[in-house]
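Replying to the earlier thread about multi-chain prediction with a worked example.

Input:
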Amino acid sequence: MSVRIVTDSVADLPAEIVQRLGIEVVPLVVRFGAEEYRDGLDLSPERFYQMLQERQEFPATATPSPAAFAEAYDRQAAAAEELLVITVSARLSGTFQAALQGRNLIGRRARVEVLDSGTATMTEGFVVLRAAEAARAGASLGEVLEAARRAAARVDFLCTFDTLEYLRRGGRIGAAAAFLGSLLKVNPLINLRAGLVQPAGRTRSRARAVDQLYAFAAGYSLIEELAVEHTACPEEAESLIGRLAVLHPRERIYLSKMTPVIGTHTGPGLLLVGILGDKAKVQSAG
Amino acid sequence: MPFSSALPATNAHRLNAAELRELLQAATLRLERRASAIDRLNVFPVPDADTGSNMAHGMRCGLQEAVRAPAAEAAEVAATFARGALAGARGNSGLILSQFWQGLAEAVGGSRTIGVEELARGLASGSALAFRAVARPVPGTILTVMEDVAAVAANEPPDGTLPGFLRRLTEEARESVARTPRLLAVLRRSGVVDAGAEGLYRILEGAWRYVQARAGEPPVEEEAEPEPGPAPLLPEEAAYGFCTEFFLHGRTPDLVRMALQDLGDSLIVTAAPDAVRIHIHTRIPEAVLERAGSLGRLEQVSTRDMDAQYRVFRRGSGAAAPVEAGAAVIALIPGAGLAAVFRSLGAAEAVVWGDSGEEARLLTVLESLPAGDLILIPNMPDPEAAVARLRALTPKRLHVVEAGTVPRGVAAMVAFVPQAGLAENLRRMKEAIAAVRSMDVRAEKGRVVGLLEGKPVAAGEGLGEVLGRVLRQALEQAPAGPGEAERVTLFYGEEVAPEEARELCAELQRAHPGLEVESLAGGQPGRGLIVSVE
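Result:
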């Protein structure tokens, strides 16, 4: 019996892939004042970014409860005895802990492994994708875990923000706090290192920041998967894809609006390039 | 000093907002410089070799917050610093230190300037709050030094001078640190003093050296760098468990402390905005999270396997991985207003070149920087003499980024990312310089001349008129890098009023709706504008 894959909504996987590969997505929670929404289920990105503009208060996020994970495990365990759970970086979210705790609440008999992807956004999605493909091909839990680990070591992203205010408010800013406080308007570039937010570059104009996103992709010797994600800046995302098409077939580039739980921590104006692949020798974005 | 001029006058007795910020910077730099040595001392409560780096991280976060929110009153600086230090607090001593700043800031609330009396009150309040945060205070740690220093401060005459006051506090701190092995057996056995205590001593020392230099007194003799002593003696195997940290919503610190205290050691519970922050060393993090989870919603849960960390520490034969001290940036600038711009972008310091007071300040900064490598941005043509002078002043390795103009220097500073490493930073900074155009518009002898890349290209009557013409020329030329010009920045000189600068901005914006225009006080002498196009 094959292995089933469970992940969280930060992986931002397109619904079509989730359905095709039978992946179970446990939603994080987005809060606006007293209202609670399950990420991606009760709150679409469109509605969320509209609310972000209209509402006075800042949204907040919360991890799924261990019980929500347990329910997902039970559902999947009806069809498989072995599950692999892949979560957003444990250093950015308590989701990994909740997934672990969920194992204690499980009703059915199943073997559940939990893996910290060390990343977020579609690059977490790429790790899930490779694991799900391996599972579909009949790999054992150990092999699926290995495929996920290998992918996790080969994903990276670079993104540019309009403002770091949301990241600061949400307590996720980490070492990129060094970019706060500039008296000049600057465009910060951010990535994740060891699962934490890191400053990766800074420019004086959005156009040059987008140039750096392109250069980040161009620094790869092999691109297996490529995603462009954005929060409420679709035209910029489209035009970046136009440029990236010389590096990777346009029809294979994933384009998505960030899921609300990520948007909560980034605010509007985020543009991200995420890659699964191998870098050329020394090229690095930070 | 020019950038303190808008604030209340100060003397050897009191510090204004800008000076308090500088004092905190000096203290942070002093601590950062010693951070890796302090990491190596770290044996209690867990020898995970991060006390110095954790404390320095919190101080750095405090400093960033204090710079980010410019304040007119010293009390506001203390409050913003404390807020940042709390947000950036990690580890045992780091959290205790954040509470200390919190208490200090509360006690000095409302003061425009700060002197001996306020500081003494602040130290007492800071020490008290730090004690309250710790579930079981242990003698022979940073808490003991706080208490000792606060006691000495309370007995000082309130009208004394700051250098004298801080000297006595620093001396008391040094002695109190030396006493820690007598109070705590694990220190005695390992042959070290307490790491957190040492950190606090270095912070006070940095503050003292700063007020000493500001009062124009001769710089304090630098003590000989202590030989790195034998590595602390550490047990072979240890079971320290997991360092578990998280936020809990909806409960008071006291209740949480009571609920969790039997589940582990080194429990520290502090009040953060809208939540309570918990730090605990435990064998079973799941049990802590379960009990805490029954009290309220948890956030930002982090658990760290200290035993694994300890094994790595031991493998390195007691020497912790050195704290990454990347290169620090020093900028030489033509006007004091630009110092804030450079500092806000992460420069260690920016000094007005040719000012002897500034040179003295630069010396204090140079000696307190942890980095062996310095990146120097001289924002002027022909910097050879200045570079030679600096080389004579410091034994550090100097890497010069030849900016030539302020716009290029600012562009280089923007490109600087502390994490990127020296070679990569130098590459990025040079690249950024190539992508900016520099203009200079100034009134001289009754007329206004406009220069583009140092060459006169326009002349006329008014600043606005000439600026418009020079900018048009700059835009007509092929862009220096890929893409269209996007942003114009005006750094206005001493004799240009902020309203006039704003009006010039608005004018440019009307003429070029596609550009983003901003203006900042550069403070350079004369009636003129330094303008960048990027």
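Chain B touches chain A through 49 residues (CB under 8 Å).

Feel free to reuse this layout for your own posts.
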